[in-house]
Amino acid sequence: MVYPIGVFFAAVLPDVEIAGIKLNPGPFTVKEHALISIIANAAGGLPTGVDNVVGQRWKIFMGDRNINFWNSIQWVLSTQFIGYGVAGLTRRFLIKPAAMLWPGVLPTVALLNSFHEKKEDQENISSRYTMSRFNFFWIVLSFIFMYEWFPLYFAPFLATISIACWFGNSRTMKILGSSSKGEGTGLLALTFDWSVVSGQVPLATPFWASLNYFGGYAFWTWIVGPIVYYTNPFGVKGGYLSQAQSGWGTANKTTDPFPYINSVDIFDKEGNIVPIQQPLLQPDLTLNQSYYDTSKPFHLSPAFAIAYFTSFINITALFAHVGLWYGKDIYKQAKEAFQQLENTDEDPLNVRMRQYKDVPDWFYIGYLAIFSVVLLISGLFTAFKMKWWATIFAIVLGVVYTIPIGIIQGISGQQMGINVLTEFLIGLIIPGDIIGVMCFKSLGYNLVVQALALSSDLKMGHYMAIGPIYMFIAQSIGTFIGAVCNNAIAIWAEEGLAEQFANNKNQWDPTPSYGTFTNAGGIWGAIGPARFFGPDSPYFSLMSGFIIGIVVPFVPWLCNKLYPSKNWHLFNLPLLTQQNYTAANQAFIVVPFLLNFIFNKLIFKYKNEWWTKYNFIMSIALDSGTAFAILVITLIQFAITDPLPNNFFNPATADYYCLERNFTQ
Fold first, then answer.
1. Exposed, middle or buried by CB within 10 Å (0-12, 13-18, 19+), for 465?
2. Is the dihedral of CA 405, 97, 367, 69 positive or negative?
3. What is the C-alpha separation between 337 and 148, in angstroms, rounded?
4. Distances in whole angstroms, Cα of residue 217 to Cα of each of 303, 593, 619
5. Which residues of the chain have pLDDT under 50?
6. What is the pLDDT of residues 206-255, one digit of tens each?
7. Are the beta carbons of 219 and 211 closer than 8 angstroms?
8. What are the pLDDT digits (tens) for 410-430?
9. Contact, 273 vs 243, CB < 8 A?
10. Which of 123, 169, 374, 605 ranks highest by number of CB atoms within 10 Å?
11. Buried-exposed string 122-139: b where 16+ CB fall within 10 A, e elsewhere
12. How far is 63 from 469, CA to CA, in rounded Å?
């Protein structure tokens, strides 16, 4: 919608000045379009700090009524903005090197250029594919807009097709095949809903990165997960199977026998779900030691345990992989930065960007310092309680991890997270302090996320020849709007739906992400890593992941020394262990990988001219058309209260023919 509105205003606004600013500076340009897109994207993201607001304030979680709009907006804004200071200080390592492609921004760059491509430029391009990228975009957008009405409205069955469930009615098939949130492993499950597929960015992710991610998912979810479930290495009382037959972890153990192989809940020794509130927590939100002693050992679902194991591997593998393969480049960039040397091996993009005034380092340092002070004040005087040293520690941790995570994202398009690392470290230091742990996690984790968000936009500015100052301003405006609006919605939604939450506490889950965030606070904060993963815990063996993450990256690196090949570095352990899927819809993996293989392997190789011209345009057109369809369908559902009649493609329940309760043993 930005393009037609921009063209319209360029045509109708008068050519006058207001306070020295031209109301209509001329035709709507690609740079203006890019800046507006950045503002919209930044405003549309959900701030991690809102997780703290929801987890601490909402009655279905902790119910702390001391949190109001003003102290929560202070927290959300400061956790959003502090990362931008770090982004500026790391731009020499993440933006300027030519190897840092940032694949995630390429579809947007291609789309913007197609909208503003001049007719004579299109005619001068020698190609057998004569359709303009502009027309191609609108054709694809129109098609996906009409198609998405089926999986999103008329035929929800298409959104999740659990193939394994069709091969038998046994418990094993249900466990392996179910792809519903929080239940099965989704073995070979398919989705024909682009709103699910698009999360993996299949048309923009390099094939080698997609192969690493898919291979890791298949190994950990479809092979290791069932092995853990059936062998019970963590000593669940009677084993997962016997607990499943009695309805382990359900509100009604006599009528709901589905086993919890994939859940983010915490379970006590009897298999009951432990909510992150009283009696686990005392009124001051610290651990109730007597309840813990009588209910331990606490357990995780197999998928949740594996997710933490792979996170432990990922934490150390990031540094090992980046250090081995990119250490020399990092050292070179650091040396040039500290010695104020000119890079004599810069690519043409860097040379072109020299014409624009850069944001000085002192500004980024000041930005980082100001929001560090705001966070210190917030931690000491608001409900988002953190010790002063914990605030500084979280900031330092985020700064340290920004470069290695940024390098992985810059070359692959996939972003890692340090959420588990932050929880683990602070949980060891302040066990029992759930609020301190949750706040530390949000600050450290979100600092990296926001630093890389600005880094991504700065790289986009490189591609679009837009000055860094304007990219920074656009990102900041969008972030401010998004933080204020999301925080207000979080407060309003709980107030407006308080009665519904109270009446449906056990049946309604607002979103899996908030439940995951709060339950993680219970594991790492209330209980603490020393209790949950210490030597006396059934999950102590998971700690070996830290050692594995250090050792395994040396294998392909040494193989490359002995048998040199350009492909050894593509074995990427951080991507192989990026398993942030617990409790998500498990149908999100197969179709995106197949599409990635078709477009970024086969078409890239055999129809490269078509791929170069249309691939990224198709990616953004599919996303845009789907977003528009979701908006229209949502508005219609508000207006039409009567549901569609049930049929094969619109089943009465959300199990998609995979969770019937009459299955055989």
1. middle
2. negative
3. 49
4. 11, 11, 23
5. 120, 242, 244-259, 340-341, 344, 498-499, 501-509, 660-665
6. 999 899 999 999 999 889 988 988 888 888 765 555 454 444 344 333 33
7. no
8. 888 878 888 889 999 999 999
9. no
10. 374
11. beeeeeeeeebbbebbee
12. 42
Report phi then psi at 627, rounded to 5: -60, -40
How far is CA 437 from each of CA 184, 371, 520, rounded to the nearest angstrom?
30, 20, 10
* Contacts (Cβ under 8 Å, ≥6 apart) of 581: 217, 221, 303, 307, 588, 589
Angstrom distances, CA of residue 115 to CA of 130, 547, 614: 16, 50, 13
Of 243, 237, 228, 236, give the one whose Cα is nearest residue 309. 228
C-alpha–C-alpha distance, residues 630 and 632, integer Å: 6
The angle formed by the CA atoms of residues 568, 573 and 577, to the nearest 5 degrees, is 150
| Among 226, 227, 268, 229, CA closest to 249 | 268
Question: Token pair of 498, please?
Answer: 């308080």
Instruction: Measure the CA–CA gap between 356 and 488, rounded to whole angstroms.
Output: 37
- pTM exceeding 0.85: no
Return the amino acid letter for 61. Answer: F
* Distance from C-alpha of 46 to C-alpha of 485, rounded to nearest angstrom: 10
Can you tell me which residue has the tokens 């299109």?
122
Identify which of 657, 488, 504 has the alpha carbon closest to the alpha carbon of residue 60: 504
